[in-house]
Amino acid sequence: MKKLLYGVAYYDEYMPYERLETDIQMMKEAGINVVRIAESTWSTHEPQNGIFDFRSVSRVLDAMYKADIQVIVGTPTYAVPTWMVKEHPEVLAITKNGPKEYGARQIMDITNPTYLFYAERIIRKLMDHVKDHPAIIGYQIDNETKHYDTSGPNVQQRFIKYLKEKFKTTDALNDEFGLAYWSNNVNAWEDMPSVIATINGSLGAEFSKFQRKLVDDFLAWQVEIVKEYRKEGQFITQNFDFEWRGYSYGIQPNVNHFSASKPFDITGVDIYHPSQEDLTGIEISFGGDVARSTKQQNYLVVETEAQAFSNWTPFPGQLRLQAFSHLASGANMVSYWHWHSIHNSFETYWKGLLSHDLQPNPVYHEAKTIGADFKRLSAKLINLKKKNKTAILVSNESLTGLSWFKFNHHSELNYNDIVRLIYDELYKINVEVDIIHSETDNLADYSLIIVPCLYVASDELLERLNQYVYNGGHAVFTFKSGFTNENLKVRTSSQPGIIEKACGVQYQMFVEPKNVKLTNHSYDIAEDNNEVHTWMELLTPTTAKVLATYDHPAWGEYAAITCNEYGKGFATYVGCIVSSETMSEILIDAVKRANIWRQEQQFRFPVIIKSGLNDAGHEMKYFFNYSFEEQSFAYPFHESVELLEDVTYQNEEMIKISPWSFKIFEVKERGRTNK
Question: Where does the Beta-galactosidase trimerisation domain lie (predicted)?
């Protein structure tokens, strides 16, 4: 990209009165240079079966082009019109809870031939209508696409075909999934029952994997259609989302971001996060790291919050802080959902940049400063490149596997809780990371790889991790890693199975800890933060050194945390769920041992530092203050220009960062930092 994009979703169809020209004037004043349209309004574009009306699309395209605002057009396939369901109720997804009912979005079966017929037709009609319009810079496929738990008879038949192709025979299926249990053996493919009610974790997890593949196929199918129409230089993207906990939290259970993003030119994501006193920047950073890592390139923030709910209305300065936080992780676009606050229906109080009176407000005025700085500094800030030496290996299969076999019967902790326990503590000590996955082949590019709860893994992946350590890499493995193969079959060896080579430790028993703390360790942790909870493995070292044991009258002889030299490398194994303070200490040790401790690590949250190289090859340093307290410290890098104020700072010169504010430094050429 040649410039930073600053945008909004714009739905002229939702406006309570005519104000397109007024909106465009206000957008121009705010520095908005791109809008998203069309993906939410199928019923407007096709009010009756085969009757098409793209006047609203043309009207917005023409007006935006006249104003020199670029447009991303979305395919309107994620919210079906009433006439389709009336004529073809079979398009509604059948789930484990029964058929969906009309009203909400994303209620369709993305494999249903009738739905796909109408979806292709509206895509082609829309694309044919807009394909020559000069305002368009790119296309968005669908919206936050998932499989919506579609599980009906047609999906079950496709799943049987999938299993046939994978296992060839029912005997192989029965053996690998252990279907003899409770007489679940399938002795003929035509006898295969629906898996909606299965009690077999292997079969259930395989179905979840298959459902994620349905998303891959559906998105790739749409991309191929749009490619027939798009012009040279126009991109195709998708706005992936994350596990939702009232905000974007972790790896999406229903989509494999790495495989689903393959057909797209650039990855797009929707990132929503806590604000006000709860703004930490962690969700912005996590979502950005996932998006950037899918293709190891810059990405688009297709949606993020402007005001949204009352608990998300930003403090003064926070909208700017959030926008530049996205850039610091590698985003080339920041776009709000959405421009105006809606006056009816489900998202009435998911407020936009403008409130319900559609007039300028403090958030809008702050947006104007962002737009001006994006324009002024675009050449310096666009296409930020990162070369991180730390990675976290994530696994959709392990996420699914651990949803079948939880840490214990009393806990709601899931896989993403452990991923975020690790990610958050790295973030707080200013260690930037890539997010990698089981098919990542460049493990040797990283000095340190953290492997949280790799419950489901092939022999090949575990051997590659062993080899990574043996060749000189540093790894941190947590509990529950190496436990089952790729089909959720528990390995018959002592745990942690194959990675015992690298970790030098084994165990046979695991328990739910009660009143257990760590002892015989050197971590600098307060007694109140020394607890072990939810899950603990009773470790016996083979070649490993013990870093901590359990303070417990029955389990005190067992190791809790170990480290092991293996070949030229080093592996740490954490056999229990520890506090965030303890995890921070474990990770600090690992970063130091991997020899990637840098100047940034002298700082701690709420001061967050993000780094990278800009298009000119100059080193960029973002300093953020996520707090109400002014932060003051000596500048730790070479002579640099602070871009917002155009002031030069020398090494060790004192700088101050106001509450909920930031500074951006371009390091001068005389030698890179962090060497």
Answer: 389-596
Q: Exposure string (b/e) for 504-514, b if CB count within 10 Å is 16 or more? A: bbbbeebbebe
Helices (H), 263-361: 282-295, 318-328
* Whether the Cβ atoms of residue 570 and residue 593 lie closer than 8 Å to each other: yes
Cα distance between residue 127 and residue 13, in whole Å: 19
| Architecture label for domain 390-595 | 3-Layer(aba) Sandwich (3.40)
d(CA 375, CA 82): 43
Query: CA-based angle 537:543:549, to the nearest 5?
Result: 40
Sort residue 359 into left (φ over 0), alpha (ψ -120 to 50) or beta. beta
Q: pLDDT tens across 515-549, in order?
A: 999 999 999 999 889 999 999 999 999 999 999 99
Residue located via tokens 């780094």: 611
CATH number of 1-8+240-381: 3.20.20.80
> What are the extents of the domains in the chain?
1-8+240-381, 154-204, 390-595, 603-667
Residue 244: which residues within 8 A CB-CB, separation 6 or more? none
| DSSP code at position 535 | E
Please, are residues 331 and 298 in contact by the beta-carbon 8 Å criterion? yes
How many beta carbons lie within 10 A of that of residue 101, not counting itself?
10
- Through-space distance between the first and last CA atoms of the chain, rounded to whole angstroms: 29
Tens-place pLDDT, residues 110-154: 999 999 999 999 999 999 999 999 999 999 999 999 999 999 999
